[in-house]
Amino acid sequence: MSQARYEAVERVFKMLIKKPADIKPSEITPKELYLNRREFIVSTAAATLSAGAAIWGLDTMRPAARAYAAEKLPNVKKTSYSTDEKQNSFKDITTYNNFYELGVDKGDPAENAKYLTTRPWTVSIEGEVKKPKTFDIDALTKLSPLEERVYRLRCVEAWSMVIPWIGFPLSALIKEAEPTGNAKFVEFVTLLDPKRMPGQKPGIFGNVLDWPYTEGLRMDEAMHPLTILSVGLYGEILPAQNGAPIRLVVPWKYGFKSIKSIVKMRFVQSQPKTAWNTMQPQEYGFYSNVNPEVDHPRWSQATERRIGEFLRRKTLMFNGYGEQVASLYKGMDLKKYY
Amino acid sequence: MISRLKPFVFLLCLMPFGQLAYNAYIGDLGVNPIDFITRFTGSWTLIFLIGTLAVTPARRLTGWNDLIKLRRMLGLFAFAYASMHFATYLVLDHFFDWQAIGKDIVKRPYVTAGFTAFVIMVPLALTSTAGMIRRLGKRWQKLHRLIYVAALAGVIHFYWLVKADIRRPAQYGFFLAVLLFYRIALSWRSSISKSTAKPVGRPTQKIVPGKSLHLFSPPRAGQDE
Question: Would you say A91 and A68 are in contact if contact means Cβ atoms under 8 Å apart?
Fold first, then answer.
């Protein structure tokens, strides 16, 4: 084999097995550069070939990416809650997203991020609380010191990443709101605004999900020290495609529980309705704890592909956070309460 | 005319693969390359299956009978992309984890459907040679009607694996339904015309360009499948 051909094969192979976490964030191709390269590829490939494919609506024909300018977050403290596993690259985390409000393909949210303006933005705290309040987002961000939390994220679609979130414990906000004795659950609601969230415009088959997206946690889950409200990642403010300006992160549950772009939190007495559970109750439960022994009815949850790795790895009970959270579910049949 | 067109169509059919290879070479298969390759090859399998099935209606619509000479190539490209799709699943996705693969095929309806489609396509590809067509005679036509089953299983495979957005599988389903309906209407017409007037043999009228009525005229013996 000629040297050039050998290198080509090696390159393909490396691409397939590369671990982006080998690359330090500082060594990543400058955003403008990869953006230019992307646009070159997209335009040539799209022009030559995708004309026909476009008729079929085959957006999966090309991986998408888009960069943006971001603001640094100061004074972020490290905590012992973080994993020391290799982190996925900024590009992985910001161009491979499930955020249907900004489009259903993984690359759509990054492309449509421009529509989601996050100022002004308020988050209202309602329901069974002594101090209901509407926070301005900038005030909310200063409620509690910001911490870095490097968490595993396990998607219900059987892929995973390691993400350096920046945020603060949800419990800090809950304490501030002073829930009454009637508050047993917290309901979270995402922004409803088809102008800023084009994915909320109904398509030919109506809405993909019942907008606005809603999620919920039991009070003890919400108060758990691992549960955070995130406002940034990789030292910068949260990109729109990752759920700006503020999102939930519950690392032991499937990713869809970690609701994005929150505008409302309501403390309630009974278990709130949640978006995916409403859509497909037998496939997505209220709890949705990561559990390798309880399969999704249509696919296995026993293994996962860590983005950037070639071989699948075994999925861990509670996504590896069992030591901290298993006690919350003592005595519960997790096959029934999936 | 068509024989001069054929190499060009061949290259056209290779272009999706070319794009995939190029993207792989420059290391631009997105954040989840295995998922991307899987979706890409799967989508093109469905496109080629539907393209293959569309040849006959297209012939009748345009009266351009030579189009039939492209059908085998389109069908074999469908099989080629399906093979890449299956190989991706086998090697890149599960890396020969036979236990997991076996379980998947038995337990996961979407995998069962996809695997069925692929298995059906194997004998069709194997019997696509001129020699086999001659040897199988009438049975060849019957056997190759299985392409409808393969395409249907392929669309169901796609439909069963999507989480919420059914638009794309629905698109393929729509085109397949149109083609199936056309085929059913055609055989219905031909059985009516057989049971009424003409006592002997099938009508042997020529397909004339521009006469859209021929869209549903019965196939001529020996020409069509």
Answer: no
* Average pLDDT, rounded, for chain A: 85
CB A68 within 8 Å of CB A57? no
Reported as a single tens digit per residue, the pLDDT across A290-312 is: 999 999 989 999 999 999 998 99
Q: Is A50 part of any domain?
A: no
Which residue in A151, A229, A244, A152 sits closest to A197, CA to CA? A244
CATH code for the domain of A119: 3.90.420.10
Q: How confident is the model at residue B72 (pLDDT cuts 50, 70, 90)?
A: very high
Interacting residues of B148 by C-beta distance below 8 A, sequence separation 6+: B53, B180, B183
Query: Do the beta carbons of residue A209 and residue A100 sit within 8 Å?
Result: yes
The answer to whether A232 touches A238, Cβ cutoff 8 Å, is yes
Residue A71 lies in a domain: no
- Nearest one of A257, A280, A287 to A190, comparing CA atoms: A257
CA distance A85 to chain B (A): 18
Of B33, B43, B171, the CB nearest to A15: B33
A102 within domain boundaries: yes
Total domains in chain A come to 1
Distance (Å) from the C-alpha of residue A110 to the closest C-alpha of chain B? 12
> Model's pTM, two decimal places?
0.79
Q: What is the DSSP string of B85-144?
A: HHHIIIIIITTT-HHHHHHHHHH-HHHHHHHHHHHHHHHHHHT-SHHHHHHHTHHHHHHH
B161 contact residues in A (CB cutoff 8 A):
298-299
For chain B, what are the domain ranges?
2-216
Contact A310 B35 (CB under 8 A): no
- Categorize the per-residue pLDDT at A43 as very low, low, confident or very high, splitting at 50, 70 and 90: very low
Q: Residue A318 and residue B209: Cα distance in Å, rounded?
A: 66
Give me the domain span that covers residue A100: 79-329
Of B135, B154, B134, the closest CA to residue B146 belongs to: B154
Per-residue pLDDT reduced to its tens digit, A192-209:
999 999 999 998 888 889
Mean pLDDT of chain B: 86
% of chain A surpassing 90 pLDDT: 75
Q: How many CA atoms lie within 13 A of A15 on its CB side?
A: 22
